[in-house]
Amino acid sequence: MSTPDVVIVGGGIGGLSTAFALSRGGLKVRVLEQAKEFGEVGAGIQLAPNCTRILDDYGLLEEAKARGVVPDTMVMRDAVDGSDLTSLDLRDLERRYGFPYLVIHRSDLHGLFLEACREAGVELVTEQRVTAYSQDGDKATATTEAGAVHEGAVVIAADGLHSVARKLFVDDQPVSSAYVAYRGTVPIAETGRPVDLSEVVVYVGPRCHFVHYGLRGGDLLNQVAVFESPKARAGLEDWGTPDELDTAFAGTCDAVQQGLPHMWRDKWWRMYDRDPITTWVDGRIALLGDAAHPPLQYMAQGAIMAIEDGWVLAEHVKRLRGDDGAVDWAGALAAYEAVRPEHCRRVVLTARAWGELWHLDGVKRERRNVLLRARKVDDYSFTDWIYGPTALFPSHEPAMFEPIPLVTADRLAGDLADALAP
Ligand SMILES: Cc1cc2nc3c(=O)[nH]c(=O)nc-3n(C[C@H](O)[C@H](O)[C@H](O)COP(=O)(O)OP(=O)(O)OC[C@H]3O[C@@H](n4cnc5c(N)ncnc54)[C@H](O)[C@@H]3O)c2cc1C
């Protein structure tokens, strides 16, 4: 094997999309994946305009739309009484941001990037579990547990939540939210109830929420049921089990109850994030995707941030590549690190706040509902900073961010109390 320009560790959505972005710019890229095959587990994924903008630039948007569903509306409902709380008109959203809101099966999105990488000539190597990193001047290496040494001008670690490379930067651990997600896909003909696939729906309830939307042109229904585990709160090891699922959703409305029998009950995902870090680059080694910024999923931005990371890095590489093909890697990595960590820090923290807001109970839940119902349907102040192009900034200057509308549950409840005070 000849020496690549870039070695990427991890063949998830972050690693593959970055490999494609760099190779279409003319670099030789090798991806190392620990598994026997490249693939994705899980079900659906939501792709907001800040991602479909990039898919369009990659020439992959039409195929992604063909494999997914482009819904008309996103609706938030109360999980207890089923009433509407607020919504986004996704057609208007598309007009505002220039690109659609799309929902797609994870394996279809992953497969799209895998095919694009193959066509672009990316070297895709499986059964390569990387356990060590090193660097010397203008070279960096990733070494596998079997002793294979992969060298490149740069090594990018896109090795996910349990990243080995992250230990080079910080001595931290994943933070447990004590929430767990059940997923499930079911052929639409087998749901046993009418489901409007023009909607992406989230039912928010006390310590739980339930999401559904269509996949594969409407052939499949994707469902996600998320709840707080009492066993996790009590510090028990065996948490998130199906009995806890049933108890958590016992008080929810008929629409949610009808969806629950279709959840997969043999596997579940415990929800972790990590505290944000702002250093992602050390010489010729860089973090990307969940390795750098794993979020809780409440903003549906984890995979999107990984895709954005790769696009931004590739844009800076393009800008700093000389006529002889040599890349100013120090400049490109510094520019990447100047713009991405702050944006991702805000997404990770805002996702935690959204989780609090969704899962309120008692009077706070009722106050939240009053405020959400009062939201104007064309108020985009919560989405501009994230769906607009500002997160990408292909500039080497630190971005000038708008103040973030970081709404915590307590602040929201406090706002309403203030508003109602005599
Ligand atoms: C319930 C749920 C719903 C979600 N919904 C959305 C959504 O709607 N929209 C969205 O944008 N995001 C969503 N996310 C988040 C999203 O799934 C992740 O942020 C995203 O998959 C991260 O991609 P990644 O490539 O960085 O990491 P990963 O997907 O974790 O990929 C890492 C890859 O690296 C490999 N690897 C790991 N360690 C090594 C090693 N040492 N050597 C070699 N290879 C290694 C792994 O096998 C894997 O293939 C959701 C997450 C959850 C849990």
Automatic annotation (TrEMBL):
InterPro entries in the record: FAD-bd, FAD-dep_Monooxygenase_BioMet, FAD/NAD-bd_sf
FAD-binding domain residues: 5-318
Domain of life: Bacteria
Keywords, ordered alphabetically: FAD, Flavoprotein, Monooxygenase, Oxidoreductase
Cofactor list: FAD
Keyword GTP-binding: no
Pfam families noted in UniProt: FAD_binding_3 (PF01494)
Keyword Flavoprotein part of the UniProt annotation: yes
Gene3D superfamilies assigned to the protein according to its UniProt record, in alphabetical order: FAD/NAD(P)-binding domain
Name the UniProt record assigns to this protein: NAD(P)-binding protein
Species whose genome carries this gene: Planosporangium thailandense
